[in-house]
Amino acid sequence: MHKVTLRKTVLSVEEVFHEGGPVAEKPLLRGSIMAVIKNPFAGEYVNEIQGFQDDLKPLGLEMAMKLATALGGAGAIEGYGKGAIVGAAGEVEHGALWHAPGGYAMRELLGDAKAIVPSTKKVGGVGARLDVPLTHTNASYVRSHFDAMEVGCNDAPKADELALILVMSTGARIHNRAGGLAAADIKGEDGLR
């Protein structure tokens, strides 16, 4: 068991009113939360790292709750995604440890979310930014919810840190016109359609 040492969190909310077309009656909200923590594996190769996923679960749930609250509550969330930026003394596999605790935290909070939580990760230096993908929470093939949010922090991650990220949105892209499966037509059987 490893202690999760949190240095800071960064919470960001965007209100999108239009993308050059008509102003929406209700803006799309997109938000991100980043937790910058010490990487317990930085600077050396450690073979057994899976246990750290369990250590991250409480942080994941706390982050999901804060982000959902900032966007109007769990009932308002229609899209989600996750990511990690690993400081230079770590390896991309350390970021992969965020898959389960980050994804399951959002799925637990949102209740019946069926779609896989899209993810991305990379090793980067201080100030690195990450484009984190979003998809619909219940059906991965809902094109209107395919989106991404760029996330970063000016002083993170330091070489011995991990920047763990969750993103959520309250709906489709403003002015989406790409067709495909509509959110209203989701069957909810398999997380895809």
From TrEMBL:
Entry protein name: Amino acid synthesis
The superkingdom of the source organism is Bacteria
Q: Name one Pfam family in it.
A: AA_synth
